[in-house]
Structure formats: structure tokens, C-alpha cells
Amino acid sequence: MSTPLLEIDNLKVDFELPTGTVSAVKGVSFSIRPGETLALVGESGSGKSVTSTALMRLLPEMARISGAIRLDGEDLTQVSAARMRRLRGNEFSMIFQEPMTSLNPLHRIGRQIAEVLHRHRGMSGSQARARVLELLHQVGIPEPERRISSYPHELSGGQRQRVMIAMALACEPRLLIADEPTTALDVTVQAQILDLLRDLQKRYGMAILFITHDLSLVGRFAERVCVMRYGELVESGETVEVFNHPQHDYTRMLLDAEPRGSKAAVAEDAPVLLSGQDVRVRFTTKKRLFGKNDYFEAVRGINLTVRRGQTVGIVGESGSGKSTLGRALLRLLESQGQLRFEDTDISGFDKSHMRPLRARMQVVFQDPFGSLSPRMTVGEIISEGLRVHFPELDRREREARVIESLQEVALDPAMRKRYPHEFSGGQRQRIAIARALVLKPDFLLLDEPTSALDRSVQMTVIELLRHLQHKYNLTYVFISHDLAVVRALSDTVLVMKEGQVVEQGSAESIFRQPREAYTKALLKAAFLRDMDSVA
Amino acid sequence: MLSYIAKRLAMAIPTLLIVITASFFLMRVAPGGPFDGERQLPPEIEANLMAAYHLDEPLPMQYLRYMGNLLQGDFGPSFKYKDFSVTDLIAQGFPVSLELGGLAIALALLLGIPMGVMAALKRNTTVDYLLMGTALGGIAVPNFVIAPLMALFFGVMLGWLPVGGWNGGALPNLVLPVVALAIQQIAYIARMMRASMIEVLGSHFIRTARAKGLNERQVIWRHALRPAMLPVLSYLGPAIAGIITGSVVIEQIFGLPGIGRYFVQGALNRDYTLVMGTVVFYGILIVLMNLIVDLLYSLFDPQIRYDD
Prior knowledge:
heterodimer, A: about 525 residues, alpha/beta, Rossmann fold, six-stranded mixed sheet, 20 helices, about 35% helix, about 25% strand, globular, B: about 300 residues, mainly alpha, MetI-like fold, ABC-type dipeptide transporter (chain A)
């Protein structure tokens, strides 16, 4: 075994908050050898990101660090701030989870990359420019000569992450800390970025500390893995070993947390609840005083039929138009084409015509933090729809319904007096489901309801959705970019790209025998672990 | 860009129309008229005067006549300052108001921005509390209270500065009115700058800048300052409007021959055309300044483009 490049010895991080001290990392030890990839895995709140940020010494001032972080024997917790600045971006560097906001929006990307070279290598002018062009080329940015003077907002998320990588690699660091570098990206882009990181790792011979919540990436990418929970290391070892013989229950649970099973089929002749023909949604991009407006067509002529008791899964990457289609189906957005709900043609319905139907068509959104009003108690949030749709209920009856729906989603009804911020992401999503459910709808639009949740929490929410569907014969349209979840829940699946349906069919056939190249690429990127030889 | 400017200017027309119409009729609703002096004029002479200025016509007729003249760029004659047209008076007064307002804005930016940055960097320390406490005072106390107090203290009691008068724009005469006019804006800008600086310092790209190994000075100067100034930049439109209305009061208090003083005196004298002229002029000025600020914004922020 060669000497470690980075050695973390009994690292502890405490945050001193006005309300008391919170221990985020409770004595973690591991090491990374030169050129190796170590994955640090855990769900939200496990302390994995705090650990990596502590390595950079970029934690806020209220953080207290103890233990040792040795880079080539030099203890980073002890060196001066000036020495630390010479190391950061030079000997080791970091890329972050948020490619959209991690670049300065007011500086051209060339300048942002060159800044590192100037800071650590004293390069400027044409010398720096040549190196920046070389880096942009290496990270696969097309037309570097032109892109060097782009602003971040002119690039896609994947391209921005490539720029971040170029910036991190500019000074050929020996260690790259990658904190969930692909989490915010579409699956096909994820795969590209990981391939890129691996190529660059070979070229530069650097070690990578890879932080992720996604075990499926680990199997493919890292030689060794450390599993964290509640600020502690619960298991570590060779990836193959840990995957095949997990020692700790938590690791086993994580490995097992892939959604499984499939939905029981619905009779072919079940009545049609919702259908759309040639549905189109246009957004005006340029208004003209005279003549036609310019517009962008986000949904381009989609036909779909949703039968009672069915789940129709809509999959696609960001910008595919899947959420737009979902909103158009509920007439939350203006659309062209025909829409029918049961026997009613709702195509031209305005807000007041739709209102009586709203109780029967409900929606659960992706963001469990943003979609519940922070100023209302959970009880008020859930009962608000009742006030609108069932004005005949008195206060006690409403209360009873709220309690019933909270029990339905397995939350303690006593919690209805609390505010949303007191709940975890998974609990909030349950509240959002209870809010929809209390109106006793026939139809639920589920717009990425599990995407913001940890895998283990996703599982329980999916179980809940399945249970409710079965119990009340609910009909779902389930929008997601996560194919594993869609597979577990749907009868039929629509694969969308650029506003159109690429492929459509039963969930079984789409996942077993995809016909279109795009569907195949999506599946390949999404089920990395299944396709690897780790099992 | 050009078509955007044209569109904005076209959109300003209804705004100005409403402003002009509302002030025209409000002015006429106010009791009294331009020829009500302390000395009662003989009825025949007053009738002649009214006829000469078309004030004997029905109001809608007068309104149409005024609008017609305005379209030809004619603000009409002043009723009180005989032998002067309103255009003359505005032309005389504007350089004074411009100098006063321009200096006040410059002072507000020069002091407000560093105060806000300092408070943000020293957040929740004595420095922060002191700066923000002062700023709160600046907002709470209106300038018509501060101005006379300053004149009393620095002019009368200490005798350091003249208590009023323009004196051709000599520096000592400028100090008190400019400071009095700027105080409220300094306070607003400082508070705004503090808030946006704190927000920017917490953003992801600042974390990136630190991860690059830059020192705090570089992080702040190169990466934080410009984005933090964007909200202040967009506040400049309303700030200019605030300075203009403020200068109406300040010019009166310090006896400065700017447009503001004509505006106040015109209103008191029921000098209809003078008041209307200044209102129209102010309206156009505010619309133009807002447009200029928005265009400047696109220079600072590459994400804003007025291609259209």
C-alpha cells in the first residue's frame, strides 16, 4: 500500500448555533491514495458534504473543527489561512453540486478559469489564454475559441459543470473533491460528466474524493467506498466488497433502496378518465404590436389516454416538456388541442369553469420545501381546499377530514398544529399528498414527487402512493426523470423529448425492449448498476 | 436595443398624459386664481386679463388649448413672472437643480455603497449596528426637519457655512443643501447595499471564488461587489425621483433658484402654466432617467439584454 495522499484522522465538526451545538461530523477517519477514487456515500444530513467542505476549510465561522486532515503529511487544520489559499485550487480543488449557480454570472468563463492560473501560476495574457483553450478542449466544450468569451448563462448545466471542472483542473491538482457533481444534471449528461472525470483522472493522475448519495454511481466510478450516516462512518472498504457483502444494516438498506416491483395491470376496458388529443402548449417569446408573436412550442401535439385506476408515467430530461404537459392536462396552463375529463370537453374551460372539477383533479409538486406555505399550519394547508370545495362542512367536520387524511399518509394527526418547516422533506411530501387527498380526488398529477428525496425516503413515499391508489382506485399521471421510480409505478409510459413523444407503450415493453435510441440511452444511463458486473 | 428604447418611450406617453391631465384639473380645482392679489383688481381689468390668457373659456376648452400648445413644445407664459415664458424659467432653474441633484446622487452613492459594504462585512458587530442605526435615523427624519437644523447648527451657531443662497454655485453654498438632500438616499442605499452584499457573499459563486484560493480582498472586489451593486443600480430610478421631489423642499428652504422653487411658488401663486410646465418637465425627466438606468443595467449584467 503506497503512502496516502490525504489522511483524515478522527475529524469532528461542530456547529455552534444560538440554540446550542450541533455535531455534524463525529470522529471520521479515512485516507485516499494518490490517483485513487474514494466515494463518500450518505443520505442528506449524513455529514458527507460538511466533511468535504471541512477539507477545503470553507465552512462558515461558527464551525469548530477538531482532529487532523493531512495532505502529504501537512495538517490542514493547523496551517495559516495564507498557506491554505495557496493550496486551494492548486494542490487540491473542488467542484460543487450546483453547476447553475457556482459560476460568477457577470464574468466570462475564460476569465474565471484564467483567474486560477493567474493566482497560482502567475500566468496572464496569451499564456493563460492558451491554457484555458486547452482546458476547455479537454473538458469537451465545443468551439473553445468562441466559448471562451461566453457568459455562464449562455451555457447549459452540463457545460457549466464542464467549465467548473476545467477551473478545478487548471493547476493540475493532486486531489479533486467532487461534491455531488452530477446530481443536478440529466441522466445522460451525468454519464458524460462521469466519463469525463475518469478520463481526466487518468491524464492527470489525480485522486478523487467523490461525494454522492447515489450508490448506482459508486459501483461504476469508485475503487473504495465509505458509507456515512448521522456524522459517523458506518462502513468502508473496497467497493466490490462492500456491494457484495455489506456488513452494516444501513449499507444493506441503501443498496436495497432501488424501487422494485411493478404495478398490477388495469383492465384494458376500464373507463377513460382523462384524454388529450394533439395537445400543444406555446409560450410567447417575443410579443409584437403588429403581426404574429414569436413563440416557442414546449409541447408539440401529444395524444394520451388515461384510464381509471391507471398510472401513466411521463419520463424525459429537463426541457422535454413533461411538466408543461402535466400542467396543461389540469388546465393550469393554456393549451391547444382537445382535452376531455370523463365526458366533459374541458379544452376551452377557464378558471371558473374548472373550479368545480378541481376537487377531483389534484396535483402534488416536486419541491416539498417551496410548495407548502410557510405561514400556514399543516392543518390549515390541508383544510384550505375543503373550505373552497365543501363550504357546507363546519369546522369540526373539516377537522375530522384533516385528521383522517393525515392518518391516511401515516403522519401523526397531532402534528396538524405545526408549520411546514418543522418537517423533513419526506414528511412534507406526505403533507402535500394529504392536501390533495382530503378532497377525495379521482385523478392525481404527481410532478416529480420523489425527486427531492433520499432514496430510502423515496421508497416509503412510493409505497404510500401505491397503497392509496389501490385503496381508492386513484388515477395517476406520474412525471419523473427517474426511470427506476417510473418503472415501479406505471402501467404505461410516455418518453418525451423536445416536446414530443419519442416512444410510448406499456411500462413492461418500454423497459424490457426499448425501440428508440433515445429511450435506450436514457435506460443505460439510469440503470448503471444493473448493467455493471458488480452484482 | 433601439426598438426597445422606442417601445419604452412610446409606453411613457400614456403615463405622461395621465400626469398632465390629473395635475391640470387638480390645479384648477384648487380655490383661488392667478390674479387674486392682496389688492383687489377692478373687475374689468381682471376680466381683460382672464380673456387675454383664455381663462374665461370653459375648462375642457382650456385643457385642449393647453395640450395643443404643449404638443408644439410651448409651455405658455408665466402668469406671475411677467415677461418670462415658462420655458425661460425652467431653462434658468434647471442648471441649478441639476447640479444640486447630481451632486446629491453622487454623494449618496459615494457614501451609501461603502457604508453598506462595511456593514455587510462586519455583520452583527458594533460597526454594523452603528452604521445601520445611523441609516435608520436618516430614513426616519425627513429632510425638511434636517435641513433647517443643519442650517441652524452649521450656519447660525457655528457660522461655518452660509445658511442659504446660491452665490453662483460656490462650494460653501452647496454643502448644506446637497448633504440635506442626500441624507435619506445615503441611508436607503446603505441598507440596500448591506442586504444585497450579504446575499451575494452567501452565494455559490463566492464559495467557488474562495475554493480557487483567492484572498478576501479579491473575493470581494472581483466577485462580490458588482453583483451586489445591481439592486442599488435599479434603485437609482426611484432615487432620482426622490431627489427631485426632495429638491422642491430643499430649494425652498435654502432659497436656491432651481426649478423646485418655481414649482412651489407657482403652486402658491396659482401660476397655472408654471406649475404645469414644471410637472411636465419633471415627468419627462423621471421617465428618461428610469430608461437610462435600465439601459445601464444591461451594461452591468450580461444576463439582461435588450436585443428586442
